[in-house]
């Protein structure tokens, strides 16, 4: 957890700033969600599975995920993907780092030559985009996905059958 805590903090801080900057949430709602995020991170052994976005969308219900997805599709030109409909490339599944995926709500789902395809709920966080682009050092094609789609996929992954590469980076 300690190795990904800076990523978690940067990803959520920059996402929150972007959401406020685009007037998708108020600063007061963001402050409340950040307090809740800190509370959950301090009290859970699985704190890498806690996200500001899930708090804003599901728990506080102050952010419309539909509105967020519309922005990602219309203003940022992303496609929309549901991970339950994807057959994952074996070379990606073998190297999938679940803690980083949870921390960024991002999942690489395909790899073709020099291009990696990523599904994310955190596209508006520059820290998330930078992290994944540097991790793969390839062309990256981004797709938007719902928080629930990414969480369902990650919850279904078995840590024993998906080795982590995080310690090697």
Note the quaternary state here: single chain
Distance between the termini: 14 Å
| Domain module count | 2
Biggest sheet character: 4 strands, mixed
Describe this structure in words.
The protein has 169 residues and is an alpha/beta fold. It folds into 2 domains: 5-63; 79-168, GMP Synthetase, Chain A, domain 3, CATH 3.30.300.160. It has helices at residues 5-21, 27-43, 52-59, 65-74, 90-95, 98-104, 126-136, 147-156, and strands at residues 79-80, 106-112, 115-120, 139-144. A 4-stranded mixed β-sheet has the order 1-4-3-2. Helix 7 (126-136) links the parallel strand 3 and strand 4 (139-144). Helix 1 (5-21) crosses helix 7 (126-136). The two termini are 14 Å apart.
Ordered list of secondary-structure elements with their pairings:
Elements: H1 5-21, H2 27-43, H3 52-59, H4 65-74, E1 79-80, H5 90-95, H6 98-104, E2 106-112, E3 115-120, H7 126-136, E4 139-144, H8 147-156
Parallel strand pairs: 1-4, 3-4
Antiparallel strand pairs: 2-3
Helix pairs in contact: 1-7
Keywords:
GMP Synthetase, Chain A, domain 3; four-stranded mixed sheet; disordered C terminus; globular; alpha/beta; 2 domains; 169 residues
Q: What would a concise description of this structure say?
A:
By secondary structure, the protein is α/β, with parallel strands linked by helices.
């Amino acid at each position: 957890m300690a190795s990904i805590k800076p990523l978690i903090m940067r990803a959520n801080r920059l996402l929150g700033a972007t959401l406020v900057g685009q007037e998708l949430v108020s600063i007061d709602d963001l402050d409340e969600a950040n307090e809740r995020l800190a509370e959950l991170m301090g009290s859970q052994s699985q704190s890498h599975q806690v996200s500001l976005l899930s708090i804003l969308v599901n728990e506080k219900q102050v952010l419309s995920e539909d509105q967020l997805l519309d922005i990602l599709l219309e203003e940022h030109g992303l496609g929309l993907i549901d991970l339950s409909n994807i057959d994952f490339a074996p070379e990606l599944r073998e190297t999938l780092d679940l803690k980083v995926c949870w921390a960024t709500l991002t999942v690489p789902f395909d790899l073709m030559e020099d291009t990696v395809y990523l599904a994310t709920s955190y596209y508006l966080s520059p820290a998330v985009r930078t992290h994944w682009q540097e991790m793969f050092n390839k062309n990256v094609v981004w797709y938007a996905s719902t928080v629930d789609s990414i969480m369902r996929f990650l919850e279904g992954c078995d840590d024993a059958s998906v080795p982590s590469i995080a310690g090697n980076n």
